[in-house]
Known about the structure:
Two copies of one chain form a homodimer. By secondary structure, chain A is of the alpha+beta class. Chain A contains six helices and ten strands. The first copy, chain A, has one domain: Roll (Pnp Oxidase, Chain A). The first copy, chain A, has helices at 7-12, 16-28, 66-70, 114-128, 141-146, 205-214, and strands at 33-39, 42-48, 50-53, 56-62, 75-88, 96-110, 147-153, 156-162, 180-188, 192-193. The radius of gyration of chain A is 20 Å and the shape is globular. Chains A and B meet through strand 1, strand 2, strand 4, strand 5 and strand 6 of A and strand 1, strand 2, strand 4, strand 5 and strand 6 of B.
Amino acid sequence: MSDQPSYAKIRYAKRKVDEDAVAHAILDQGLVAHVGFVAEGRPMVIPMAYARDGNRLYIHGASKTRIVARNDGLPMCLTVTHVDGLVVARSGFNSSVNYRSCVVHGTARWVEDRAERDHALWLVTDHLLPGRNGEVRAARPQEEKATGVLALEIEAMTVKVRSGPPVDEPEDLALDLWSGVLPVTVALGRGVPDGHTPPTMAEPASLGLARRKFSA
Amino acid sequence: MSDQPSYAKIRYAKRKVDEDAVAHAILDQGLVAHVGFVAEGRPMVIPMAYARDGNRLYIHGASKTRIVARNDGLPMCLTVTHVDGLVVARSGFNSSVNYRSCVVHGTARWVEDRAERDHALWLVTDHLLPGRNGEVRAARPQEEKATGVLALEIEAMTVKVRSGPPVDEPEDLALDLWSGVLPVTVALGRGVPDGHTPPTMAEPASLGLARRKFSA
């Protein structure tokens, strides 16, 4: 995938505003991010929930966890990828993947300020379940203490988009071979209530909003 | 997500064989991996196609690309994550994500041997489109030269699995709130033929095999 021509990158190099809009859309539609950091000289890549606040990203974790506790002031990379289809070419070489990815580089900052931390946790919940914060009971002090938050100002960003049909060699087009795209979609289903939810209770609005936001 | 209890990790710590089976299933069902490495002291996370061959992983890229060319002998991290559902709890604190992830640590090895490189490229194509290698025309020497391959022996692996309903505080269960799981699934659709494929031509078998393999 990384070896695919980055049409977006090339085009947006001259159109920063558009690149930001595309990048933010990719980030805002992601269910999870893959967060990279360096631990004892080795690269680590961990899936994490996250949220975007303008040009800043927030991730959270138990206060004790290595990612949150040990990365204050250190460089981080946060990548969100959407796979849109398998590109089925007439050769292995031209086979590819249609995808949209945004690679963000920044420096992790441990969020000390309680108001900013509460704001970040609100955003992380709202990212996955829009409006859910207004449905659940309020957070408790010990819960806020147990959660650590890192902020990441977006210092650099690379958008890559591969879309459309395969690009076969001209001499391959005459081959008696099927070529095209196998679409990949993400779907959010109906909510499955837990054992303590009355079967007659309607789904909260946040589930429908999440379906609309993430179902491709 | 990383702050979720890792049931799998705890349980499988005593049952290595099971952990390997679960880890291999997570790796084999992934569309893309997020590959982490260190470049000029900074973490980088890039989405890449990949394939597993026993206890070894292969990734490929244009011979010139930084990932392939500059990482021979360096530590790498390869993470595959499946998001299975949004865990909608009665509090933001207990809200979570159902997921399966496998984090692999290894050392990148530039594949010099042509037979191993061809084998790796065959596997990467077969990973996304099972059987496709038998459908397309043979690779050409200049295509093989243009492609670089890295091998990664799995030196360490961490499996994390979060599944099931929310775990709410006992005192929250009486609240008049919907709680449960919003399922997330990946679906591969019908193939969309390109402009050079006769509309009457049937989908090749590899597309159906990919649908069965990746549609959750």
